[in-house]
Amino acid sequence: VGSVKAAVAEALVAAVPASVFVVPGHPIAGTEQSGPDAGFAELFQNRWTILTPQARDDDAYLEAVQRLADFWSALGAKVERMDEKHHDLVLAVTSHLPHLIAYNIVGTAADLEEVTQAEVMKFSAGGFRDFTRIAASDPTMWRDIFLGNKDAVLEILGRFTEDLQALSRAIRWGDGDKLYDLFSRTREIRRGVIQAGQESAEPNFGRDRR
Amino acid sequence: VGSVKAAVAEALVAAVPASVFVVPGHPIAGTEQSGPDAGFAELFQNRWTILTPQARDDDAYLEAVQRLADFWSALGAKVERMDEKHHDLVLAVTSHLPHLIAYNIVGTAADLEEVTQAEVMKFSAGGFRDFTRIAASDPTMWRDIFLGNKDAVLEILGRFTEDLQALSRAIRWGDGDKLYDLFSRTREIRRGVIQAGQESAEPNFGRDRR
Questions:
Q1: What is the mean pLDDT of residues A176-201?
Q2: What residues of B are in contact with residue A143 (Cβ under 8 Å)?
Q3: Is B197 on the interface with A (CB under 8 A)?
Q4: Does B143 contact A179 at a Cβ distance shorter than 8 Å?
Q5: Do residues B127 and A99 touch, judged by C-beta distance below 8 A?
Q6: Cα–Cα distance list, A6 to A82, B78, B84 (Å)
Q7: pLDDT at residue A209 greater than cutoff 60
Q8: Which of A26, A49, A124, A181 is the best residue to mutate to test the B interface, defined by the most B CB atoms within 10 Å of its own CB?
Q9: Which conformational region is residue B137 in: left (phi greater than 0), alpha (psi within -120 to 50 degrees), or beta?
Q10: Beta bridge partners of A27
């Protein structure tokens, strides 16, 4: 398991004997905490696990992949298979860029002179606190993710920055229509996330443990 | 109440008779939903309300301010008073920039050709979904906030972008130490947010309604 596939799978396949079945996988679930104590029984319930099997079609390997898929299903997860390069791009969008942005905004806020760190913490309920959660994820793991998925992350980051410049320009020139259009469009994505069962509209986001 | 103070307070004071006490305020609480139905009894519990009174020291005005502070306290909120310009800068950091970034990343993700919107939604539990929540906030209100607090937002956005470029460069050149340092530093801010009682470390963020 892990958040980067292409580079890791290549290294792993090269390192193990040919008799070993390598089936890279990635459960898209969890919190900002890590280690066994951060687990809970419902962690994988209704979450997706991505498997990125090798391009092999011998029966023994296919059977091993299916056994692993069944394992994840038994934990309550839904399983999707995809190409490892596509996995790395999908995760660059849905996980790596969000983490990078969160780390960055928390760093920016911490470094301001005019606003104190105490103020940032006290008044964080206006949106900032959600970013601090993500930015509390394990530093070693995330350093390695960004270095291991460099190309996809920089590609997505480049697009993000372009879009942000356009938004900045719209604010500077008072282009309210442009802002309104984007802000309406993003609501649709939120609806899709809720419909996909990945979150609820409740204030606690449907993330009750029980 | 409202998320921008300086421009609004000025317009309001100019518009009402001198006998009216204008006491701008801003409760830092709420979800991405708006309107009376989005309220719940514990909404303001342990959250901060900022009052930005005018620079007046006549007894009648001070009494009105105190009465309003008591009102918020009675709802369970903690009250802080500050200068309206400082409010707008604090909120640019703790609320406006987070919303801008969230709107932007959701827009970027929606526009990709290589990754479908369905994939973005399905695999959003890796971090992205938290941004979709914020990016589902009311478009009209947020358009007006960005236009009404333009200077502070652009100032903070400029710093954010600078920091992001540095981070992008660190990834490109494989500067793992720089990444690790930032990612460790941001964890401290998270601890501060939790200590300030603005969130818990539970997977549901302590946002149970009851």
A1: 91
A2: 176, 179-180, 183
A3: no
A4: yes
A5: yes
A6: 12, 50, 51
A7: no
A8: A124
A9: beta
A10: A49
**Is B165:A118 a contact under the CB 8 Å cutoff?**
no
Cα separation, A199 vs A191, in Å, equals: 10
Q: Which residues contact B129 (CB under 8 A, 6 or more apart)?
A: A193, A198, A199
pLDDT tens track for A132-145: 999 999 999 999 99
CB contact under 8 A, A183 and B50: no
Chain A residues in contact with B190 (beta carbon < 8 A): 32, 106, 132-133, 135-136
Interface size, chain A vs chain B, as Cβ–Cβ contacts under 8 Å = 357
Distance from B61 to chain A by nearest Cα, in Å? 26
User: What does the pLDDT profile of chain B (210 residues) look like in tens digits?
Assistant: 889 999 999 999 999 999 999 999 999 998 888 889 888 888 999 899 999 999 999 999 999 999 999 999 999 999 999 999 999 999 999 999 999 999 999 999 999 999 999 999 999 988 999 899 999 999 999 999 999 999 999 999 999 999 999 999 999 999 999 999 999 999 999 999 999 888 877 766 655 543
Q: Using a CB-CB distance cutoff of 8 angstroms, which residues of chain B are in contact with residue A186? A: 102-103, 106-107, 110, 132, 135-136
Closest C-alpha among A2, A193, A194 to residue A96: A2
